Amino acid sequence: MRGIVKYSTAVTVALALSLGLSGCGNPLKKSDEVEISTEGKTLFETGLQYVKIVDRDVPGVANDHPYSISPDTMRTVLESLYVNEKVLFNQRQNPLFSPAELQILSNGLANGLSRAQPNEDVTFVTLGVHQGMIAKERQSDSGRVFMSGGRLNIIFGLLHEDYRDKDQYTGQEIDRRVNPLLPGTRKFDSEPAVRVALDNGMSYHIDHETGKERTDWIEIDIPTVLQTVAERQADSKDALISPELKEDIARNKQETSNLRDDMANIKEVLFDMSEKMDKLQKELEALKK
To answer: For 173, 175, 216, 252, which has the most beta carbons within 10 A of its beta carbon?
Structure first.
C-alpha cells in the first residue's frame, strides 16, 4: 500500500513539474565565442572539458589528416546528430549536443582535424544541459574523432551520461583522477546507454573482426549530411529566418513535443494508479465487514 501511494505521489509531482516546464522559455543561451588555442595539442580546456589532438589509440590505416573543414560546416554536421532516449513508455529523439557543446566542438574539432597528422586523432569531453524526464539535467559526452575513408568517424565513450560531482550512494566527492571521463576507443565497444539516431549519410561502423555493428562508433558522409540539411531548409516556408533562430525553433518544437508525450504518459500512469487504488479500497472495505 505504501509503495503505491509513494509512487502515485511521485507521479503527481512529475505532472506538476511538467506543467510548469511547459510554460517556461528556453533557459539555455548560446555561450560566448570559444577561444581555441593555435599552439600545442590541447585546443580547448576548462575544468573537465577539453578538446585535444592525441596519438591514435591503435595502429592501422593512416587517417585522412590534416582535413580542412570550417567551424560552420562542422556545426551543421554536429547539429544533425540526435539520440534515441526512452522516457516512461515512449522513445523520443533529442539533440545529441547542447548549444554550449556545439560552440566548443564546432570550433575545436574543425581546428583539430586541420592540424592533426595521419597518426593522430582528436578527442573531446564536454558537459551539456539536456532535457531529462522531468527537468533539465547535466550530462557528459565524450568521443574520439578522425577522418578515414573520406568519412567523419566519431567513437563515443559517453553519450548523455548523467554527470555527478558526488557519488549518489555515499555522497562522497568523485575523484576524476581515479574515475576520469574517457573518450571512445577502437579497442572495444563502450556500449553507451543511448544510441545515435541515424539519418541520411550516417551509419554504424562494422567491426571487421566480428562483423557486428559498433554501438558507439558512427561514420558520417559529410556531403550527404550537408545536402540533406540544405534540402530540408529549402522545403521550409520560413526561408527568411536566420539559421540560429531556426535552430532554436526546432529545439523548442522538439521539447514541446516531448513534454506533450510526457504529459500523455503521466496521465496514463495516473489513470492506471487510480484503478488500482479503487480496487484496494474495495478490498479494504470488504475486510472490515
So the answer is: 216
